[in-house]
Each structure stands twice: as C-alpha cells, then as structure tokens.
Automatic annotation (TrEMBL):
It comes from Streptomyces longisporus. InterPro entries: ClpP/crotonase-like_dom_sf, Enoyl-CoA_hydra/iso. This is Enoyl-CoA hydratase-related protein. Gene3D superfamilies: 2-enoyl-CoA Hydratase, Chain A, domain 1 (3.90.226.10).
Amino acid sequence: MTPTASTGPVRTVRHPDGVVELRLDDPGRGNALDLTTAEALRDTALEVAADPGGAVLLRTTGGSFCVGGDLRAFAGRGTETGAYVHAVASAAHAAIQVLYELPVPLVAAVRGAAAGGGVGLALVGDIVLAARSARFRLAYTAIGLTPDCGASWFLPRLVGPRRAAQLILTNPVLTGDDAERWGLVSRSVPDAELDDTAHRTAADLAAGAGDALRAAKDLLRLDTGADLRRHLAEEARSIVALADGKDAQDRITSFLAAKSVS
C-alpha cells in the first residue's frame, strides 16, 4: 500500500503503518500563518482528530518549520489589524487545542526556523524531535506583541518560569541542541536523520499497545485541557489589544523593511 495524501497549504498523509501525518506545506512562505493557513490548520487538525490512526506526525515541508504569523498579512491594516490578528489567532488556537487533545501520541519534527506561533505549534507534540540546525525564537516582544499559540502556557511547564521569562522577554535563538538542553524538545538529531527518525518514532508508537498509550496520554493530560483553553483565550485577547496599537504596527513595518533590505 502507498500513502494517501490530501492537498492544500496544510494537508494529511495517511501511511499504511498507521501513522497519520499532518503537514504544513507552504515552504515558499516559511509555512507562515495567515488566515487561510491558520484556518486550514484548524480544519485539517479536526479531520485528523476524527480518524487519528495509531499516531500522528506533525511536520512541515521546506527549510522552515513555521515562522509564525505572516507579518506581511498583518501590516498595513491600520485599525483593522486587531480584527485580522484575532481571526488568525482564533483559528490557530482551535488547532492547538485539537492537537493537544488528540487521543493518540503526537510526534512533532522541527527543522529550520520555529518562530512566534511556530514555537507553540512545535511544543504541542508529546514527543518533539528537532534537527540540530533548527532555530527556535519567540520574537513577539521584538515587534510589540505577546505570545500566542500556547507558547506562554507550554514554556513555563517545560523549562520553568525563569527560562520561560528569558525566552519570551529577551528573544534568544536556541539551536536544536540548545532546545534539548533547555527541555523544549525531547531530542535533537542530525539534520539528515530528522524525517526518518520522526516517522520511525511515530510508526513504533502506532504499532505499540494502543489502549495503554491512549490511557497514559489521558493521565498526562488530566485536567490540563480546560486550563490550556482558558490560557489560549487570554493570549488572543492580549495579542489583539497590542496589534491595534501604533507601537506594534510601527515595529512590524520596521521589521519587514529591514528584512527586505537584508
């Protein structure tokens, strides 16, 4: 049997070994989250949740995992910026919630840049593998915004409050090896081995004791799903309030101008 795949900026690939792959497939834009992609991510996550196989593999096509929100789509909207950011965040947050509540193990494979919302998307995995050359950076406060996609919920639980504050407030760049040392990811692997290692990990889980794995995941998620839902709502409120302000809009414009020059 050969894998079956859907199409679009976010798609599913169903493998004969029981692995259901959810893949962001817009490499020309760094898999950035504009409204179309965020809604596709939400809808595809719901599709996967309805029939998740034995394990889910979250990965992306191209050189970047996900560069976060599409700032070009945010820029130039003036007083409509907040409404647009709210729509993007709402769709992305619905996807995060669905992925977090998947009944089967979720393996995430991160290569290249994971920035902004891409960090939260990566951290939703139960097992997160990163290429050694991967680059993790929150970057929100540098453009006058606050975290979304659950980043400010996952990070304190994974790395502790001090390191979470450092990541969110000062925006350092962590390599895959750094991310493993800090506890953001389960393991850092050589770049050339990431895809095979991630798929093999998911396939081994899919072939495992399914009832036990689901029950174990239930225990790990006990009473946290509602907490994440509340936190995602507060993240959306905060980033939307700032997105309508002049400081954030000026910083986004400056960031895009500097990027076009470089």
